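Quick one, tokens below:
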């Protein structure tokens, strides 16, 4: 294995109707809406000068559709990787944020206002488990393309755990970073751990557009 792996350009998929409705998705096979496709096209333009040796995506439609739009015309196949899937949310998948609030209250949990916060919810994939499978998938990609750039498209819950796992942030710490659709983080394996090279909301920084954290129950 290489001591220094690929630069992994990790992208959150574009918007879906469930995002717009503040409805949790988990493993549900939801698709991009027109705004989501526009976000993916915006990223394709942003990345046009970046050569990707490979492209990977979660096998859920909203992720691989985003990757397909970004990689269109490049001649690079998008590989679907189940290990990059969103957190499994069990019986809560498809609930609106208000319904999730009620479910949390019913079992005595506080309201964090964060749709990426599932601590204490029964039947939901744990932070440790989602980070472990995400880390394993990322190591495989990293080792396969050492020294090159690779596109990786996945989900807000998965990316939140990547950020916390790489930076050593406790799962009990309130999230103080956005998880907007189209967000990009750059990770690289160096010797014995992943390092974060960048955290970028491309539309906000480059296009001046307002960002919406769709992992939060309310817009800022």
């Amino acid at each position: 294995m290489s001591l220094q792996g690929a630069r992994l350009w990790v992208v959150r998929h574009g918007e879906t109707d469930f995002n717009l409705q503040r409805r949790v998705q988990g493993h549900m096979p939801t698709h991009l809406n027109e705004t989501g496709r526009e976000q993916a096209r915006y990223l394709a333009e942003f990345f046009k000068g970046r050569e990707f040796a490979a492209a990977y995506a979660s096998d859920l439609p909203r992720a691989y559709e985003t990757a397909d739009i970004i990689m269109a015309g490049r001649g690079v196949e998008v590989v679907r990787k189940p290990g990059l899937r969103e957190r499994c949310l069990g019986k809560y998948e498809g609930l609106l944020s208000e319904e999730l609030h009620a479910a949390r209250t019913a079992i005595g949990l506080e309201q964090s206002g964060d749709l990426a916060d599932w601590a204490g919810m029964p039947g939901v994939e744990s932070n440790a488990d989602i980070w472990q499978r995400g880390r394993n998938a990322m190591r495989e990609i990293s080792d396969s393309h050492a020294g090159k750039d690779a596109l990786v498209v996945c989900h807000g819950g998965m990316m939140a755990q990547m950020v916390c796992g790489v930076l050593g942030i406790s799962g009990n710490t309130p999230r103080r970073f956005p998880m907007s659709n189209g967000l990009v983080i750059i990770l690289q394996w160096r010797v014995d751990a992943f390092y974060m090279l960048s955290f970028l909301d491309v539309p906000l920084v480059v296009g001046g557009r307002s960002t919406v954290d769709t992992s939060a129950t309310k817009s800022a």
